[in-house]
Design brief:
The protein has 115 residues and is an all-alpha fold. The chain is built from five helices and no strands. Helix 2 packs parallel to helix 4. The chain starts with a helix and ends with a helix. The relative contact order is 0.20.
């Protein structure tokens, strides 16, 4: 699981570089993948009362900034947010169905905050 977040961090750090060297569709795909991964983490965290909503909002705001600078059109931005929302819901369901514990959700959020 930590490797997944390491990879997410690496993608997030290279996203600005991708914007200058890769075609727009590649950049949007990379940001969509980041949004999906962040959505799962924030969704599972949101389903846990022990996790502060302020922490979740902070990460959501960071993602929003990334989407704003990476998606050149409203249509691409919408597609990225759709990926985020679908995975956010899946993260919430994972906690509700006990596939993820709140301890694991908190750990995943902490790892995401470090990136």
């Amino acid at each position: 699981m930590r490797f997944h977040f390491f990879l997410l961090g690496a993608i997030a750090m290279t996203a600005p570089v991708i914007g200058y060297s890769a075609p727009s569709s590649d950049r949007v795909d990379a940001v969509r993948q980041i949004a999906a991964a962040v959505g799962r983490v924030l969704g599972s965290a949101a389903a846990c009362r022990e996790i502060s909503p302020l922490r979740i909002k902070s990460m959501s705001d960071t993602l929003s900034d990334l989407i704003t600078v990476s998606a050149p059109t409203a249509e691409e931005s919408s597609a990225i947010w759709q990926a985020y929302n679908l995975n956010n819901t899946e993260g919430q369901r994972a906690v509700a169905n006990r596939r993820i514990t709140c301890v694991a959700a908190e750990r995943a959020l902490a790892d995401l905050e470090k990136t």
